[in-house]
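User: Predict the full complex structure for these chains.
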Amino acid sequence: MSRSLLTFLVAGAVGAGVTGCAPGPEDREPDDLRGFLLGEPLAKPEVVLTSTDGTPFNLREATNGLVTLVFFGYTNCPDICPVHMANLGSVVGTLDPRVAERVKVVFVTTDPRRDTPGVLRDWLDHFSRNFIGLTGDSVTIARMQESLQLAPAVIEKAAAGVPGYTVGHSSLVVAFTSDNQAHVVYPFGIRQEDWAHDLPELVRHGWGANPAAAPR
Amino acid sequence: MRWWCSALLGQPWTWQWQAYPGVWLFVLGLGTAYVWALRSSPMRHGRGRAAPTRGPVAADERPTSAREIALFALGLAALWAGADWPIGVLASGYLLSAKTLQYLLIGYVAPGLMLLGTPRWMLRRMIRGRVAFAVARALTRPLLPLAVVNGVLVATHLPVVVDNLAGSQWWTFVLDLVVIGAGLIFWWPALGRLPELQPMSYGARIGYLGLNVFLPTVPASFFTFSQYPIYALYELAPRVNGISAVADQRVAGLIMKTCGGALLFGTMTVMFFRWYRHEADVEPDHLLTPSPPGGAGPGR
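Assistant: Here is the predicted structure of the two-chain assembly.
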C-alpha cells in the first residue's frame, strides 16, 4: 500500500471519529441526489395560470411548502414529455403515501394553442390523475421559463409528411423543495429508480425550511 | 439506409414500414446455401425415393424429404419475422416484450426448425472435419450446451450490454448471431440427429429440456417482479401505444415464462411419445406375443 493511500485512510478514519458516526438522513449532504444541484437556487415563480378545470391557479400559493416538480412540455410531444410523465407517474404511485402527498407534479404546456385545459387533463390522466396541468398565454409561460433560466420553447416545423408542428422545449424538470426554492434540476435520462431515490430525500431534506412538516 | 435493426434512439415509434436489406440478405443467404447444398448433392430431394449416390452412405441416410425442406423454410420464416421490421425494430429500442418475443423466435424457434429441416447427410457433411466432428460430439453432451445457452441468455440480457450496444447496427447484428448460434447449440443435444455422435437417451433429453425450462425463470422473475424498469433503453424510449415501461417489462417476463415454457414443454411431450413409440418398436417379439393357454409366459 502506498504511503499516500495509507495517510488518506488514516486521515479518513480519524475524521470519522471526530465527526462521530455515519450521517443520519437529516444530516445528509444533498449532493447524494441523482439530479443536478444548482449553484444558486431559483425562486418558485409568482405566476397565475389556468388549471385543467378552467380555474386560475396560483403556483406559489397552491404548492406552498410542497416538493413541486415543474416541467414544460406539450401533449403532442412524441418523446421526452410522455417519458418524463410516465416515469414520474409510475414512481409517485409507488412512494410511501406520506411522501407522495407532499409531492406535486406540475406540467405547464408550451403549446397553449392546442393544449386546452380539457386536452391537458385527458393526456395527464394517462399518467396520474393527481398531476397538475397548467396553461395560459404564451407570454406568461415564456416569462415563467425565463425566470427559471430555461430556454424558451420554440415552434418548429414538423418533419416532411407529418402534419402540424412540433415545439422545441427544455427537457429539464425543475424541483422546488419546501422552502419554495429549486436547488436541483433533473435532465432527460433520469430514471424511475433515481426519482424513487430522490423524491423522499427532497421531501425530507427541505433545505432548512419548514422541517417539522416533513415526514420522517 | 439502415441494414440491420438497431435502436433508433430518441425517434418516436411509427408503424410505417421500413426496409432492412441486411436482414433479407442474411435470410436469403441461408436459404440459398441450403438450396445449393441440396442441388449439389446426390442425396437431393428424392420424393421418398433414394437418389443415386456416389460414396458410402450410412444405413439411416435417405434423400431429403419434403417435410425437411418445409421445416427449414419455416425456420427461415421465423428468423425473418424475428429479425425484420416490426419485431426487430421494436425489440432493438422500444419494447422489452418485443425483444423477448424476438429472442424466442431467433433463439429457439428458428434454430430448432432449421436443425430439424437439415437432412442427416447434410449435417454429416458439415462435421466431416476432425475438429468439427469433435465439437459436434462435445456439444451432444448436455453440460456444455447448458452452460453456453444460459450464459448467452444472461449475457445478452445484462443491462450494460442491452443499454450500451443497442444503438449500433453491427453490435446488434453480432448479438443476434450469438443468439442464433446459442439456439443451434441448445437444440443440438435435444434433437440428437446423428446416431454416430451417441446422442443422449430420450429420458436424458427430456431432463435436459426440463432444466432449460427452469433456468430462464431467473431473468423472467426479474422482469415480472422488479418494481422499476431494468433497462434505461426501454425506460427512456418513446412510448409505443402508451404502454408503460414497467407494464412492458412484466409482459416480457410473462412471454419468457409462458411462451418459452410452452415451447419446451411441447417439445418434451413430443419427445416423450417418440420415446414410448421407440420402446414399443424395440420391444422383443416374445414379450408382445400372448402366452399359450396353460403355458408359462416368458420370464416366469
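Chain A touches chain B at residues 78-79, 82-83, 86-87, 89-91, 94, 126, 188-189, 191-193, 196 (CB under 8 Å).
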